[in-house]
Design brief:
84 residues, alpha+beta, six-stranded mixed beta sheet, 6 strands, 30% helix
């Protein structure tokens, strides 16, 4: 499989960039804030989550890199970045 892969979820409040079968970045909007998580799938559950993402489940759809950048830019200009 070729990487990276880009996904968006309904309502445009969550996008994911999958760098490899074990590494991904997730941008999530909650209320007036957004969070960016970069994760390394180290547990079996994490790896299954990445596999589920790659199967395009949960109402997600694959998008292009350009669409991903556009949505991420829109999110970063309309919401407040919160760190965990």
């Amino acid at each position: 499989m070729n990487f990276p892969k880009f996904l968006k979820f309904p309502e445009g409040k969550r996008i994911v960039q999958i760098f490899s079968s074990t590494t991904f970045e997730e941008v999530v909007v909650m209320g007036t804030s957004y969070f960016i998580h970069t994760n390394n799938a180290v547990t079996h559950a994490d790896r299954i989550y990445v596999m589920d993402l790659l199967e395009g489940g949960n109402g997600s759809e694959f998008i292009t890199n350009e669409e991903y950048i556009e949505i991420k830019t829109r999110i970063s200009s309309n919401y407040i970045l919160k760190s965990i």
